[in-house]
Amino acid sequence: MRRLLVVLSLLLAHIASASSERCVDDDRNVKVCLDAPAARIIALSPGATELLYAAGAGDKLIAAVSFSDYPDEAKALPRVGSYNRFDLEAILSLKPDLLIGWHSGNPTEQLAQLEALELKVYYSELRGFDDVSRTLRRFGELAGSEPSANAAAEHFDQGISALRKQYQNAESVRVFQQIWVNPLMTVNDQHLISEATRLCGGINVFGNLPRLAARIDHEAVLAANPEAIIAGGMGEENRSWLDDWRPYSGLLAVQRDNLFFIPPSTLQRPTPRLLSGTRMLCQHLDTARGRR
Amino acid sequence: MAAASYHTPRLLPALALLSLGALLAVALSVSTGSVAISTAELWAVLQGEGEPLHHTLIFDLRLPRSLAAFATGGLLAVAGALMQVLLRNPLADPYVLGLSGGAAVGALSAMLLGLGSAAVSGSAFIGAIVSAITVFGLAHGTGSWTPTRLLLTGVVIAAGWGAVVTFMLAIAPTESLPGMLFWLMGDLAYARSPWPALTTLLALSLLLLPLGRSLNAMARGPLQAAALGVAVKPMEWSIYIAASLLTALAVTTAGSIGFVGLVVPHMLRLILGNDQRLILPACALAGGALLTLADTLARTIIAPEQLPVGVITALLGVPTFLLLLYRSR
User: Fold this and answer.
1) Which end of chain B, C or N, has fewer beta carbons within 10 A?
2) What range does the domain containing B198 cover?
3) Quick check: A178 and A186 in contact, CB under 8 A?
4) Cα–Cα dist B195/B201, whole Å
5) How crowded is residue A263: how many other Cβ atoms within 10 Å of its Cβ?
6) Domain containing B233 — which CATH number?
7) What is the pLDDT along chain A (292 residues), one digit of tens a residue?
8) B35–A85 C-beta distance less than 8 A
9) B2, part of any domain
């Protein structure tokens, strides 16, 4: 009798898992299929960790890489190295059923090695607003947390389209986006930051540079004479980069005091927090319009 | 080629020519940048008129930077020439004894802690001085020290610093990596004020002038120097201290810019002969001019984007040096 029950339950479990087979395309357009919702996920980039939590799959996450610091729960996760060099043995010993890799950030050979060891790897590569909600939905499907993932995706999409609607006819503001100070660095129009800038009615003064993240000199900024300067900071609170511009009184942005700070983690990373960063950016540009 | 004579008739014309070259390099550097300023506009600015933008560009950005480049290049070339005399080794450069490694560990630690640029410069200087003292103390050991012993100690300490630097790069967060790498490659964008480097360069060049004769004797070996009445030990000490100080200031100003300190002294020796009374001031001028030109190119070739200056110094210097070497056979 007892044996029969065991057999029966195994059979049921088999049927249940067969019916819950799930497949999603990853960002290389390769199908990643799981027999059952992933229960032991390792995120190989800080961004993936954040997206998994946002997709309601935080409880399925068993390990992350260093600098995975958002949300707070992520800080307690065991570490398997850094995003650019991870510990394959540690990963194997944790017996994950899904790895979220970062296509352009993780070492290709290590990802290939993990795949050769029959582990499932989802390659993520987020470049714009659409990718955030798409990834949230996919993570929800993989981890079986569709309801909260879809809600998060919906919330993000609605927030972005509300902003888009609000600012679609706004007067344009010429903006210098400073992402680093030593060396002085900015981004071109391909970058996520520029997508946010465009959405808020801003124009990136260095949008046409050939490289995604470019090192420039102060002279180029003075020549471009932007109406507003937006800077991230070394930390989440550091506004000192903006004060470095104050001596250049010839700059329109300095004359009108349009020197704004946005925490880099909300504007430079393709995660749901991008919504709050973009909202902040739009408000700052609106302030700049008001000072004309 | 005439061997180094003790009376160099070419001293004045050579130095006059190099000074002219240095002035031209600085002038070119001040007049070019990602914003085009015509000669007429430049003239207006120099007379205190002209556009405020141009005034800012020239006096707040370009001039301090080209003076810093000049001073750094001069410091490195003089330090390299001194090290080559001290160690009697043609491969010696300002960094051979691990100074730049110590400075790099100092600077990168400050960057890892998220400190500002003043702290980065300060800890780079401290790192360089700590390294210099360590090397000197260890090479001195319990007995007498020889150039070979000093060189070996320095090279091993440099390797140690190198390991620490690699470790720091490995554990650094992604966003601070570009800053760290640019520091390691050498970058004049960090240069805040050119004055400490410039005044030290001038002061030490003047101080070294009367020592030229003794340095010439030193270059021929300690026995000959002693026979010629040079106090060898104090002389070695002073050369080491001077070279360390020059290098420390150079890396503090602009990170570890390679190549200038190794090749400029050799280039000048190939052209001018090995008379230290001529070589040292010539190094200050030619090293300064080379780095000023290289920095001008680095910030204008793909403007507004910037290249690391070390790329340009090597690209300019390698063919020039090889040509000189080839022709000198």
Assistant:
1) C
2) 11-327
3) yes
4) 10
5) 17
6) 1.10.3470.10
7) 566 666 666 555 555 555 578 899 999 999 999 999 999 999 999 999 999 999 999 999 999 998 888 899 999 999 998 888 888 888 988 999 999 999 888 988 889 889 988 899 999 999 889 999 999 999 999 999 999 999 999 999 999 999 999 999 999 999 999 988 878 889 999 999 999 999 999 999 999 998 888 889 888 999 999 999 999 866 666 677 888 899 898 899 999 999 999 988 888 888 999 999 999 999 999 999 999 8
8) no
9) no
**Which residues are bridge partners to A23 per DSSP?**
A33
**Contact (CB, 8 A) for B96 and B153:** no
Contact A180 B174 (CB under 8 A): no
Contact B305/A216, CB-based, under 8 Å?
A: yes
Q: Are A41 and A65 in contact (CB under 8 A)?
A: no
Q: What ipTM does the predicted assembly reach?
A: 0.71
The predicted-structure confidence for B253-276, as pLDDT tens digits, reads as follows: 888 888 899 889 988 988 888 888
Considering only CB atoms, B306 lies closest to which of A82, A180, A215, namely A215
Q: Nearest-CA neighbor of A258 among A268, A248, A266?
A: A248
Residue B57, chain A, CB below 8 Å: the answer is yes
A16-157 CATH choice from 3.30.470.10, 3.30.70.3270, 2.60.200.20, 3.40.50.1980: 3.40.50.1980
Name which of B174, B177, B180, B192 to mutate to probe chain A: the one with the most chain A Cβ atoms within 10 A of its Cβ: B174
Q: How many domains does chain B fold into?
A: 1
Could you tell me which residues come within 8 angstroms of residue A29 by beta carbon, excluding any fewer than 6 positions away?
A: none
A window 14-43, beta carbon within 8 A of B: none
Q: From chain A, pick out residues whose CB is under 8 angstroms from the CB of B306.
A: 183, 215-217
Chain A residues with beta carbon closer than 8 angstroms to that of B34: 217, 219-220, 223
Helix B99-112 and helix B117-140: axis angle, to 10°?
A: 140
Pick the CATH number of A170-290 from 3.40.50.1980, 3.30.565.10, 3.40.50.150, 2.40.50.840: 3.40.50.1980
pTM over 0.90: no
B174 and A67 within 8 Å at the Cβ level: the answer is yes
Answer whether B61 sits within 8 Å of A222, measured CB to CB. Answer: yes
Cα of first residue to Cα of last residue in chain A, in angstroms, is 84
Residue B1 belongs to a domain: no
Question: Closest to B187 (Cβ–Cβ): which among A67, A183, A209?
Answer: A183
Residue B309 lies inside a defined structural domain of this protein = yes
Does B6 fall in a domain? Answer: no
Helix (H) or strand (E) holding A231: strand A228-231
> Ramachandran region of residue A29, left (φ > 0), alpha (ψ -120 to 50) or beta?
left
CATH 3.40.50.1980 domain locations along chain A: 16-157, 170-290
